[in-house]
């Protein structure tokens, strides 16, 4: 792992390279951006650049024992703190009963152990490095305890906070870090990387790149066939509603509403499809669509394009999603939605 393996974040990498070259690193950094976008990889690359055994200008070699151990999470001078529920190395040593109790928070005891660790002199490398992965998971007590380390950082240490929700951190924490914002990757960049790494067709790579919202992590994890199947199911459902009796619509709605998360997902896909219909109507460019494999007549709703109807449907789906967020009965929301779509 080194800076050359970071894709699409040239500005952030250049800032870190220059700071390394000029011996002007901040004592603490806040890496902020969407999940899976490359923040964690950049944090590990910075740790490697500082503790690499090979003298590479402003960057680690990525191949020496120190770089490999940092990438594998076993270097003694690089400590990573994260919620128990996300720590795969920790969970691998736990029983199934303990795993069920794993906390989604970063607890104050974890912060205190990390503080003790970075207060010591480096044992092998040049710096002790603390990476807090998912810093938004620190509860109030953890953040207050962590603030003390930021106010008086050990001289041989570097702190990196990684978060997708910087606003959840105390202002006093944010103000003591140099913030690097990681922007979503362009769709064409993601499509190229996905095609090379997963061997997908250009159409499938473009489709997954659109769904990932600029996150390479999401793009690499997505199941292409599952995503396509969900959208085809939505299209079939949408087109079939008009031919159903009211009792059939209510039965369908009741079945879908039993899976609240699945229903919410269905609403997201519906809004996405309507957006595709609007974009295709205005541009005629299938490459701008999320699911370019759909025919024009099936891009979002059955029948000819009627702008007012498309906008009404989008407002309806957004309103239903808001009702689900407010914990309104999913059955009532689904029944009302499907009846309105079937009987406009």
Helix/strand layout:
Layout: H1 10-21, E1 28-33, H2 39-51, H3 65-72, E2 78-81, H4 88-91, H5 96-100, H6 108-118, E3 128-133, H7 140-151, E4 157-163, H8 171-175, E5 178-182, H9 187-198, H10 202-211, H11 216-221, H12 224-240, H13 246-257, H14 260-283, H15 307-325, H16 330-342
Description:
This protein is an alpha/beta fold and 344 residues long. The chain has helices spanning 10-21, 39-51, 65-72, 88-91, 96-100, 108-118, 140-151, 171-175, 187-198, 202-211, 216-221, 224-240, 246-257, 260-283, 307-325, 330-342; strands spanning 28-33, 78-81, 128-133, 157-163, 178-182. Helix 7 links the parallel strand 3 and strand 4. The longest helix is centred in the C-terminal third of the chain and has 24 residues, at 260-283. The N and C termini lie far apart (56 Å). 35% of the residues are buried. The model is unreliable at 295-301 (pLDDT under 50).
Strand content: 5-15%
Q: In CATH, what is the homologous superfamily of the largest domain?
A: P-loop containing nucleotide triphosphate hydrolases
Strand order of the largest sheet: 2-3-4-1-5
Extract low-pLDDT stretches. 295-301
| Domain unit count | 2
Content-based structural category: alpha/beta
Oligomer: single chain
Using the coordinates above, name the CATH class of the largest domain.
Alpha Beta
The rounded distance between the terminal residues' Cα atoms is 56 Å
The largest pleated sheet is described as: 5 strands, parallel
Count all strands and give the number: 5
Shape: elongated
Let me know the average pLDDT. 89
According to CATH, the fold-level topology of the largest domain is Rossmann fold
Percent range for helical residues? 40-55%
């Amino acid at each position: 792992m080194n800076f050359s393996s970071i894709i699409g974040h040239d500005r952030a990498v250049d800032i870190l390279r220059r700071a390394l070259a000029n011996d002007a690193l901040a004592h603490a950094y806040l890496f902020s951006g969407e999940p899976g976008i490359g923040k964690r990889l950049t944090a590990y690359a910075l740790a490697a650049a500082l503790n690499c055994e090979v003298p590479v200008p402003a960057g680690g070699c990525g191949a020496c024992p120190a770089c490999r151990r940092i990438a594998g999470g076993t270097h003694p001078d690089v400590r990573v703190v994260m919620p128990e529920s996300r720590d795969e190395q920790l969970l691998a040593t736990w029983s199934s009963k303990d795993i069920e109790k794993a906390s989604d928070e970063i607890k104050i005891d974890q912060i205190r152990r990390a503080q003790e660790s970075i207060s010591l002199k480096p044992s092998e490398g040049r710096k002790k490095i603390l990476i807090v992965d998912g810093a938004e998971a620190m509860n109030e007590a953890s953040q207050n305890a962590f603030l003390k380390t930021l106010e008086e950082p050990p001289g041989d240490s570097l702190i990196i906070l990684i978060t997708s929700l910087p606003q959840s951190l105390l202002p006093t924490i944010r103000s003591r870090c140099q913030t690097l914002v990681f922007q979503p990757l362009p769709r064409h960049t993601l499509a190229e990387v996905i095609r090379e790494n997963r061997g997908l067709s250009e159409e499938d790579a473009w489709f997954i790149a659109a769904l990932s919202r600029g996150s390479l992590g999401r793009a690499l994890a997505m199941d292409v066939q599952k995503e396509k199947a969900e959208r085809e199911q939505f299209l079939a459902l949408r087109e079939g509603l008009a031919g159903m009796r009211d009792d059939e619509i209510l039965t369908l709605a009741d079945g879908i509403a039993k899976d609240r998360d699945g229903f919410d997902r269905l609403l997201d896909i519906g809004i996405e499809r309507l957006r595709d219909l609007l974009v295709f109507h205005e541009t005629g460019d299938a490459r701008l669509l999320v699911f370019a494999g759909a025919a024009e007549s099936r891009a979002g709703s059955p029948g000819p394009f009627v702008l007012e109807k498309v906008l009404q449907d989008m407002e309806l789906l957004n309103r239903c999603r808001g009702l689900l967020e407010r914990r309104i009965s999913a059955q009532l929301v689904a029944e009302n939605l499907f009846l309105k779509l079937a009987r406009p």
